[in-house]
């Protein structure tokens, strides 16, 4: 089994700073991989700090485990929860130390792949998609007010993009006393890809276009670059970040 990963992030066309942070890691024998995307909030300074703290802490906790032989399902879940909680505590501590950072927080989405098994965790509205052939499936549920309204039937999915509060989160890392990531597992077949992204991509490029942009014959880095480039052509109003993980064999 061989896993390949890559990632790109861009400030977009309208922001003055990039408050997204990303990371990816593949173990030496290429059978285990980690991908992370975080989208910070809380102002120019706060958003950048929150997302980078989250990515740094989670990477420091999980990469040593990624480099070891595979762990069982329960240990994997415990490690992810521990990493997310440690990041949450560090962000909250920084908020308390500096009033300027009092409103900062971040989304987080991560995927830990062991062979064919992927465990995805997220808080907020950064997303994970599974691309198998031309079939694109969203594997996360946005922690937003609008998503709650869609789920309870107050609005339709078609109405969601027109809602002025569509980006208001119901949960963010650093904003709640306890961090409770949503978890899901999925199986990857040969040639399948996981796509982790911030909402800058989903708001700039229609999901229906993604399979046609991510041509399997293209190198993984080029696929990521095509998504970013297309979002910029579409005048992406927010920072745009992508991490891709491919199960090559």
Describe it for me?
The chain is an alpha+beta fold. It has one domain: Phosphatase 2c, domain 1 (4-Layer Sandwich). Helix content is 32%, strand content 28%. It has helices at residues 43-66, 73-97, 145-151, 199-204, 210-213, 220-233; strands spanning 3-10, 20-26, 32-41, 105-106, 108-114, 117-123, 127-132, 135-138, 182-187, 193-197, 240-247. The strands form two sheets. Strands 2, 3, 4, 5, 6 and 9 form a six-stranded antiparallel β-sheet that branches. A five-stranded antiparallel β-sheet has the order 1-11-10-7-8. A hairpin with a 5-residue loop joins strand 2 and strand 3. The radius of gyration is 17 Å and the shape is globular. The mean pLDDT is 94.
Produce the secondary structure layout.
Elements: E1 3-10, E2 20-26, E3 32-41, H1 43-66, H2 73-97, E4 105-106, E5 108-114, E6 117-123, E7 127-132, E8 135-138, H3 145-151, E9 182-187, E10 193-197, H4 199-204, H5 210-213, H6 220-233, E11 240-247
Antiparallel strand pairs: 1-11, 2-3, 3-4, 3-5, 5-6, 6-9, 7-8, 7-10, 10-11
Q: Structural class, please?
A: alpha+beta
Give the termini separation. 5 Å
Give the proportion of residues in helices: 25-40%
Strand residue content: 25-35%
Computed over alpha carbons, the radius of gyration is 17 Å
Which geometry do the CA atoms define? globular
Please tell me the CATH architecture by its name: 4-Layer Sandwich
Instruction: Write the H/E string, N to C.
Output: EEEHHEEEEEHEEHHHE
CATH topology category name? Phosphatase 2c, domain 1
Major sheet size, sense and barrel closure = 6 strands, antiparallel
- Tally of separate helices: 6
How many domains in all?
1
Mean of pLDDT: 94
DSSP strand tally = 11
Oligomer: single chain
Classified by CATH, the class is Alpha Beta
Uncertain regions: pLDDT < 50 for 5+ in a row?
none
What is the CATH superfamily classification?
Answer: PPM-type phosphatase domain
């Amino acid at each position: 089994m061989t896993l390949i990963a890559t990632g790109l992030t861009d400030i977009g066309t309208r922001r003055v700073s990039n408050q997204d942070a990303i990371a990816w890691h593949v173990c030496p024998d290429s059978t285990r991989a980690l991908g992370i995307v975080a989208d910070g909030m809380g102002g120019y300074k706060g958003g950048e700090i929150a997302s980078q703290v989250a990515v740094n802490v989670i990477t420091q906790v999980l990469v040593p485990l990624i480099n070891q032989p595979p762990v069982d399902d329960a240990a994997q879940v415990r490690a992810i929860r521990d990493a997310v909680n440690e990041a949450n505590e560090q962000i909250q501590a920084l908020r308390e130390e500096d009033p300027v950072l009092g409103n900062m927080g971040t989304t987080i989405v991560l995927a830990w792949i062991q062979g064919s098994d992927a465990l995805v965790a997220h808080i907020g509205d950064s997303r994970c998609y599974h691309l198998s052939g031309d079939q694109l499936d969203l594997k996360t549920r946005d922690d937003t007010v609008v998503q709650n309204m869609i789920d309870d039937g107050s609005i339709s999915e078609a109405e969601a993009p027109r809602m002025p509060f569509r980006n208001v989160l119901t949960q963010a890392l650093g904003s709640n006393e306890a961090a409770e990531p949503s978890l899901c597992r999925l199986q990857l077949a040969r040639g399948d890809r996981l796509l982790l992204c911030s909402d800058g991509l989903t708001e700039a490029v229609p999901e229906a276009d993604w399979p046609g942009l991510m041509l399997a014959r293209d190198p993984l880095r080029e696929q990521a670059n095509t998504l970013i480039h297309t979002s910029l052509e579409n005048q992406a109003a927010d920072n745009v970040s992508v991490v891709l993980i491919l199960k090559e064999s």
